[in-house]
Amino acid sequence: MREIRADYDDQSIVVYQAYSPRIAEPALAAQRFVPPFKMERMTWIKPSFLWMMYRCGYAQKEGQERVLAVRITREGFDWAVAHALESNISGKPAVRVQWDPERGLHHEPLQHRSIQIGLTREAVHKYVDEWTVSITDVTPLARQIHEKVRAQDLDGARALLPVERPYGTSTAPNA
């Protein structure tokens, strides 16, 4: 089952990315992505906190030591989803999507699939210049949850997770 789950409100949605401090610190200071962030590279955004934890190893992987919660406009997110093609389809779209198994606290695959959205060209510029509302460092939260998981305090870890609920968009790609 494919489902977009996210932390969102009426105006915005949170997506996650992990970077080295070299990219994260200037972005946090400017509240937008600035050099050394490269606008010409594809950038993947993930609305699932636990999928991001799987990808970055709870902020332990080299080059992914800082986890950022990027609040973007729902209008921008919906535009990205509406313009997306599955990553296995040939061509050069502005937006790619992948549906991968959602992950649990121990990185185990779950029953449903979570969306990852790859932004290129025009979409990266929109993301950086138009959609970004705020950027928050959630690295301490990632590490705190990881400590609880390692201590087998799974209830404590779950209590710290961002509240994510199904996100309704009429333009979700099903290809």
Task: Describe the protein in words.
With 175 residues, the protein is of the alpha+beta class. The C terminus is likely disordered.
Bin the strand percentage. 25-35%
Portion of residues within helices? 25-40%
Overall, the morphology is globular
Q: Please give the alpha-carbon distance between the first and last residues.
A: 13 Å
Spatial arrangement of strands, main beta sheet: 3-7-6-5
What's the gist of this structure?
By secondary structure, the protein is α+β, with helices and mostly antiparallel strands. The chain is built from six helices and nine strands. Residues 170-175 have low confidence and may be disordered.
Keywords:
175 residues; 3-stranded antiparallel beta sheet; single chain; alpha+beta; 4-stranded mixed beta sheet
Q: What's the structural blueprint in terms of helices and strands?
A:
Blueprint: E1 5-6, E2 12-19, H1 21-30, E3 43-45, H2 49-56, E4 66-73, H3 74-82, E5 84-86, E6 95-103, E7 109-119, H4 121-131, E8 132-137, H5 139-150, H6 154-160, E9 165-166
Parallel strand pairs: 5-6
Antiparallel strand pairs: 1-9, 2-4, 3-7, 4-8, 6-7
Helix pairs in contact: 3-4, 5-6
